[in-house]
Design goal:
There is one protein chain. With about 110 residues, the chain is mainly beta. The protein has one domain. The protein has no helices and nine strands. The strands form two sheets. Strands 1, 4, 5, 6, 7, 8 and 9 form a seven-stranded antiparallel beta sheet that branches. The chain starts with a strand and ends with a strand. The relative contact order is 0.28.
Length: about 110
Amino acid sequence: MVPCLRFDYAVQANGDMTKNSRPVEYPLELDMEKYATQGALADSWSRHYYLGALVLHLGSSGDGGHYVFVQQLANGKWVLRNDAKSPAPVQDPLSFKREAAGFVYHRKPLSR
């Protein structure tokens, strides 16, 4: 899980906390090869990760809003999950640049 720090905890004049809604770029895949130590390179796992889910914050401040998540299914399709509602299809998982609050990346096994 990679968090995205979206909230300014300096309390505003009206008592609300502000939300940073600037767009955040995030990739569908991460290549961490250049950050791995030699010891870490000896195992049977890749240094490549793929995006499996996004945590989104819907709302304009740190004092309110709602968290939902976008998940990639085993068939490769993406869905939005929001409490007890049925999952809604998502066409582009990279379209949540202003709402993204966290990213879940999965490590790929090495191809054999």
